[in-house]
């Protein structure tokens, strides 16, 4: 990167934040260069893990949390919980003295209590709730996992206790409540907005109880938070936290090199040598709980035929993708589930290979195939267009006709929710939201997820549904693992998707910054971050 381009980045940064604000942030806060701006400040409504990484853990608390080191569930807003012997009732006792944010647009008169928990989940469960109607019932995570369909009743037991009653046991229930989507909102704030006929602001001018509170933003450029002095875990050391929204990796790198950013999300593989050459910059690398894959539209010929899916799967050169796109910062995926998962089933051989020439294969080659591509760099695929071209070349070399179509996420999601979609192949991927495999499988491969537009293969398999429900019905880990093994074997045999890679998650940051916690499911915690 030349001096002119670096200088241009510096000028832009000063124009956006202002000289005094830049100096203020450098002394009192941190600037994190990230790739995605949230569409909303309420994670319940978001579908992008990268986007909620800007909001959820900083602005809000959850009933329970996942310890980023041990991966065990720990108390959040609830300091303890009890589960009935039949696994159907979950009682949560809430902490006392949790303060909501005080901002220019809202001053709370009370601490967090059961009313806030009730509001946060009733808006998802009650189809007649004003907030449910306002959101058109579009709660991507909760709809994908069928959250509401298994809740028989949500009850306020007292000012400091609530109870969920389930219709059937669900061993993944607590993990789902610990996800970044299951945030606790302020019922008092919602009441105030409702009285002013401004209820929509609840999701755009956020009030939570997390370690930071919202101050201002310039849309698609930056978002500024201040520390929440009264956070129940203690106030963060840094007074300010600024998210610099920079979709282009090369510009994020320039800002890191010039000191405009302290932390950079997801550097490209070809930038690692530049980063290693700078002594003041460090690189954090983690095994990612993610997968990139090629999804077959199983509801539309030719890929309604598993034999054609197997044929095409056998043509794709995964090693070339790892070498050319990831520069060896990813592992070849043998299956959909990451080896980092406790339910991972080692696959000694790939059942999908089928290079033999049959009449049905030759017939499939007569008509052009539509390959749709999510044209946004993601942690699981930094260069989707290049990946698509490599796949296209592999298929064309074997006689298939392939047209590549690039789509951004919002356009693609609109198409995916239509009753019929015209793609044949879809190059996408997934980063898991929590450590429970149910979250991973249910959101991508269940029949409910077809309607929601997140089952990218549109594969609906009754045996899979039975195994998935059996896996969550048992509290015994051995039973769950056994069913997840069967699920992985079923997916391997039926090939609704071709797993391609498991990408490493990378961040780069200045060595003056300490105390950062990297969340294995995405995002960064700055609760204990400080500058030295």
UniProtKB/TrEMBL annotation:
One Pfam family matching this protein: SBP_bac_5
Ranges where the Solute-binding protein family domain occurs: 73-449
CDD domains: PBP2_DppA_like (cd08493)
Domain of life assignment: Bacteria
PANTHER family in the record: ABC TRANSPORTER PERIPLASMIC-BINDING PROTEIN SAPA-RELATED, PERIPLASMIC BINDING COMPONENT OF ABC TRANSPORTER
Protein name: ABC transporter substrate-binding protein
């Amino acid at each position: 990167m030349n001096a002119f381009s670096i200088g241009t980045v510096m000028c832009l940064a000063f124009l956006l934040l202002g000289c005094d604000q830049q100096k203020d942030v450098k002394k009192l806060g941190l600037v994190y260069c990230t790739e995605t701006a949230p569409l909303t400040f309420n994670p319940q409504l978001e579908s992008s893990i990268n986007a909620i990484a800007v909001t959820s853990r900083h602005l809000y608390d959850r009933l329970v949390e996942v310890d980023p080191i041990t991966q065990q569930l720990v108390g959040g807003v609830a300091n303890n919980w009890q589960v009935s012997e039949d696994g159907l009732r979950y009682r949560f006792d809430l902490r006392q003295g949790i303060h909501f944010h005080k901002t220019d647009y809202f001053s709370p008169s009370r601490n967090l209590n059961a009313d806030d928990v009730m509001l946060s989940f009733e808006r998802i469960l009650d189809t007649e709730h004003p907030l449910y109607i306002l959101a058109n019932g579009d709660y991507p995570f909760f709809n994908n996992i069928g959250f509401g369909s298994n809740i028989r009743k949500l009850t306020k037991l007292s000012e400091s206790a609530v109870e969920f009653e389930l219709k059937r046991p669900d061993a993944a229930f607590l993990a789902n409540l610990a996800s970044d989507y299951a945030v606790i909102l302020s019922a008092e704030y919602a009441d105030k907005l409702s009285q002013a006929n401004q209820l929509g602001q609840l999701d755009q001018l956020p009030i939570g109880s997390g370690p930071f509170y919202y101050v201002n933003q310039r849309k698609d450029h930056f978002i500024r938070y201040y520390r929440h002095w009264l956070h129940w875990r203690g106030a963060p050391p840094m007074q300010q936290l600024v998210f610099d929204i920079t979709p282009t990796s090369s510009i994020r790198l320039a800002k890191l090199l010039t000191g405009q950013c302290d932390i950079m999300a997801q550097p490209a593989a070809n930038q690692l040598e530049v980063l290693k050459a700078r002594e003041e910059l460090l690189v954090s690398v983690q095994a990612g709980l993610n997968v990139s894959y090629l999804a077959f539209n199983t509801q539309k010929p030719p890929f309604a035929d598993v034999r054609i899916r197997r044929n095409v799967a056998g043509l794709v050169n995964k090693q070339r993708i790892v070498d050319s796109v990831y520069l060896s910062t990813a592992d070849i995926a043998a299956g959909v589930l990451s080896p980092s998962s406790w339910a991972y089933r080692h696959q000694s051989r790939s059942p999908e290979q089928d290079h033999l020439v049959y009449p049905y294969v030759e017939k499939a080659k007569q008509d052009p195939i539509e390959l749709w591509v999510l044209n946004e760099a993601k942690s699981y695929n930094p260069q989707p267009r290049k990946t698509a071209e490599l796949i296209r070349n592999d298929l064309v070399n074997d006689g298939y006709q392939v047209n590549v179509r690039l789509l951004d996420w919002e356009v693609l999601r609109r198409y995916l929710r239509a009753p019929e979609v015209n793609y044949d192949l879809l190059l996408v991927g997934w980063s898991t939201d929590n450590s429970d495999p149910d979250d991973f499988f249910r959101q991508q491969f269940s029949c409910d997820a077809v309607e929601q537009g997140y089952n990218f293969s549109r594969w609906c398999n009754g045996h899979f549904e039975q195994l998935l429900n059996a896996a969550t019905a048992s509290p015994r880990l051995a039973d769950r693992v056994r069913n997840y093994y069967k699920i992985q074997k079923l997916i391997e045999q039926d090939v609704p998707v071709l797993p391609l890679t498991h990408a490493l998650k990378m961040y780069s940051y200045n060595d003056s910054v300490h105390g950062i916690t990297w969340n294995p499911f995405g995002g960064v915690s700055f609760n204990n971050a400080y500058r030295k």
